[in-house]
Write a structure and sequence with these properties.
Strand content: 35-45%
Distance between the termini: 43 Å
Order of helices and strands: HEEEEEHHEEEEHE
Largest sheet: 7 strands, antiparallel
Length: 182
Amino acid sequence: MKNLFALLLLTSVSLCAQSETLDLGSRGRLTIYLPGDWRIDTTNFARQGTMTISPKREEVNASCTIAISIPEGDRFDTKPRLKLRVEADCRSLAEGSVEKKAVAKEFALSSGYGFYCSFTDPDLRGQAPQKGNYKVMSTGKIRLASDVLVDVSIMADDFRGEPYQQLLGAVEGMEFVAGRGR
């Protein structure tokens, strides 16, 4: 009976989730799964692709941008190198934030590895939400393969809020399938 209930639960969750796949040609495919009501706009070019995720409901103030690039060389072949790059890239954001320092956290990924830094806007903290002005932001990089790099930005009003958590979960739950010939 427990197995039947678990199967029913998984089936119902997958029916409620939406997905979007970017075809990276010979490098593979990247699929993102989103629970809830989100709109996904994609662009797919020869050497890069983007996904912009925005809420369908007007009252939700959050968004996510995922940019896939195909680097010429593998500059981030180790976790420490990627973490250092993320922290360096985020220094200017940190200076104007509540946190004042870029401290990279590791994404919990099933494919590849990545890091992100999170920041709070001091001017918006404690204020009512304003559509398009986000109180919190996380930005980082994910190395899916030696020739597939993903830049991620998640913006919302609260790190613990459902919109932020759904977007972070979608990023961490992305599936990368390497292309043939690898």
